[in-house]
Amino acid sequence: MKYFLLVLSCYFALAFGEDYAANIHFIVYKDNVPFNLSDTASGNPIEEGLCSADDQLAVVVYGWIESCSTGWMVDLISNLTEYRGGCIICMDYGYYAEKPYITYPIILTQFMGIRDVLHQEMEDLRTFGFSPSKTYMFGMSFGAQLVLQSAELLTNKIKEVDVCDPAGPGFVATPDPRQAAENVQCVHTSVDLGTLDRRCHQDWNMGHCGLYQDAAKPTLRDTGNHATCPIFYNSAFRNDFKAIPMPLECLLPQALDILDFLTLTPCNNYPTGFKMGYMQRDKQGVCGSKGGNLYAKTTANYPYN
Ligand SMILES: *[C@@H]1O[C@H](CO)[C@@H](O)[C@H](O)[C@H]1NC(C)=O
Ligand SMILES: *[C@@H]1O[C@H](CO)[C@@H](O)[C@H](O)[C@H]1NC(C)=O
Fold it and tell me: What integer best gives the mean pLDDT of the chain?
C-alpha cells in the first residue's frame, strides 16, 4: 500500500509539474522553409517578420510517432503554401509524440497538457493579430483530437477545421466536434484506429464506408487504413474525391454492426461536384447545421480517387 501511494504521488508530481509549454514548439513555414518560433525572442511570427497580421493562418498538427518532417506533413505544408498561402504553422510536440518509450497509453495521459498548449498558442496568435475568420486548423489522428478539442475552447470561433481520421482508442464521450469551428470537416478511413463517431458538419466516409481502404496494402506505404487519410487529403489538392451516393456495401451486416447507422445522418443536398478536402471551399452550411455523412470512392493506387 505504502509503495503504491509512493508511485501514485510520483505520478502526480510528474503529471502536474510538467511544463508542457517548454517542451512544445511552433514552427512557421515560409516558402516551405521552417522557422522555429521557440528560437525567436518574441515568439510572435508577425513581430519576427515571418507573417503579417492580415495573412490567412493555418495551424497543422500531426499524430502520435509523427513529426513536422513526416512525409505527408511536408506534402501538406507544401500544398497549403501553394494553394492557400499566408502563415503556416506546425506544432512540434515531438517531446511527447516521438520518444520510443512513449506508448499510446502514455501519450493519452498527456493529452490535456498538450491540448492546453495548443489552445493557448491559438489565443496568443489571435492576440498578435490573426483573425479567427481567416484561421484554418488541420489535425491527423491524435492531432485531430488535439485540434478539435483545443479549437472548441477558443474565445472566438475559427473559420474552419479539417481533420483526418480522429483517433478512436482512448477518446470516449468527446465534446461535440462541430463546436470547434464554423465548419468542421472530418475524413474517416479506418475502423480500428479512427473514431466511429460521425458528428462533424461533413463526415466523409472514404472507400469502404470509411472503415477500410484498398490503398492500405502492406506493399504501399508501411501502414494501414488509418495512414491513408492524410495521403488522400493531400491528393485531393489536385485530384477530386467527389461525393457519391452511399455505397450498398455500407448496408452489409458487417458495416451495420460497426457503425451506428441510426446516427448516420445522410447529407443529401450537397452541390453537384461537391468534393472531399481543402479545395472544396464554401463548405459551411452544406449538410445542414447538424451535419451529415458523405461517401467517396478510393482506389489502391495514386491518385487514389
Ligand atoms: C525548436 O526549438 C526548440 C528549442 O530550441 C527545440 O528544442 C526543438 O527541437 C525545435 N524544433 C524543431 C522542429 O526545430
Ligand atoms: C501536394 O501533395 C502531393 C502528394 O499528394 C505532393 O506530391 C506534392 O508535392 C504536394 N505539393 C504540391 C505543391 O503539389
Answer: 91
Please tell me the distance from the alpha carbon of residue 157 to that of residue 139, in angstroms, as a whole number: 17
Q: How many other CB atoms sit within 10 Å of the CB of residue 250?
A: 19
Give the long-range contacts of residues 67-76, CB within 8 A, separation 24 or more. 67/92, 67/94, 67/97, 67/98, 68/27, 68/34, 68/92, 72/140, 72/230, 72/231, 72/234, 73/230, 74/32, 75/234, 76/138, 76/230, 76/233, 76/234
pLDDT single digits (tens) 236-264: 999 999 999 999 888 887 777 787 766 68
Query: Ligand 1: residues within 6 Å at CB?
Result: 25, 27, 36, 38-39, 68, 92
Q: What percent of the chain is modeled with pLDDT above 90? A: 81
Handedness of CA 130, 131, 136, 141 (dihedral sign): positive
- What is the phi/psi pair of residue 162, to 5°? -120, 130
Q: Render pLDDT for 39-51 as a digit per residue (tens, 0 to 9).
A: 999 999 999 999 9
Dihedral over alpha carbons 75, 81, 84, 88 (to 10 degrees)? 90
Q: How far is the CA of 290 from the centre of ligand 2 (A)?
A: 33
135: which 3 cell numbers? 484561421
Ligand 2 centroid distance, CA of 46 (Å): 27
The residue assigned the cell 452541390 is 271
The one-letter amino acid at 149: Q
74, 80, 237, 301: which to mutate for ligand 2, most atoms within 8 A of CB? 237
Distance 36 CA to ligand 2 centre (A): 23
pLDDT band at 223 (very low <50, low <70, confident <90, very high): low
Its pTM stands at 0.93
